């Protein structure tokens, strides 16, 4: 029993560690100088795929060690977090994102608007909230390790992205940081940002609701009815 959880914990630790460590500028530059850019990307991809496969295999093989049973309140909290996560995902992916790889090529300068006034890392927070929601809803040791690792990776990835963009863009990114916040609603709560009426398109919220309902439907059809009073 312990060996199964230790295997999952080891796999998740290495998965998170390599995703945070390998993109570090000093390590990446050293590896790129030795094996080239394509060699670095190939190595990173192979390691990532291999570790992800280990995580999946270890999770499926892990014993069922119950830590808590999700009560109605925890299930409602999980569902609420998933709705917020769906909004962050849709809004983050459909608003011009200055932190994407293509931003420099497309000439996108850091600009606080729409969902980025709520948090400058909406997609990362979507993954984090997804992880928290699934941890609450499951409550077994394997789920805590898996989803906890994913949530940690998302937050560390966002922090690493801030540091990398600050080094690359300097004053432009620092100005963007001053108008936004890492933690959702932080800039709004401190008066550094204000979401104007109509600034977040209505269709982003509608899209989030549609994605949310689709997730509930798929869960139910797969025999995992997550709605406290039943769904379909």
Spell out the key features of this protein.
232 residues; single chain; mainly alpha
Q: Can you characterise this structure?
A:
70% of the residues lie in helices and 0% in strands. By secondary structure, it is mainly alpha-helical. It has 2 domains: 1-63; 67-232, no CATH class. The longest helix has 37 residues, at 25-61. The radius of gyration is 20 Å and the shape is flat.
SSE topology sketch:
Blueprint lengths: L1 H20 L3 H37 L10 H23 L8 H4 L15 H17 L2 H29 L1 H9 L6 H4 L12 H20 L11
Q: Give me the oligomer status.
A: single chain
Query: How much is the average pLDDT?
Result: 88
* % residues in beta strands: under 5%
Cα-based radius of gyration, to the nearest Å: 20 Å
Overall form: flat
Number of strands: 0
Tell me the domain tally.
2
Structural class: mainly alpha
Number of helices: 9
Q: Distance between the terminal alpha carbons, to the nearest Å?
A: 36 Å
Query: Describe the biggest sheet?
Result: none
Summed up, what is this model?
With 232 residues, the chain is mostly helical. It has helices spanning 2-21, 25-61, 72-94, 103-106, 122-138, 141-169, 171-179, 186-189, 202-221.
